[in-house]
Amino acid sequence: PHLGRLAALDLSGNDVGRAGVAALVRAGWLPQLRSLSVADNRLDAAAVGELLDAPGLADLADLDLGDNALG
Fold it and tell me: Model pTM?
């Protein structure tokens, strides 16, 4: 209930990893987000794919994936 109006979330440099991404996409407040930064979190292509496939992120306007091992 406290995060229901959260519009922007910056998790840069927090070592979120795949487990953190999995928890994030299950969050009930996720559809409220318009901006998400997960830069510099050692995310791989599979973790990013999970983010991109999350229905709760359909209205996201800004996604920062910088400094992750995506190549």
Answer: 0.90
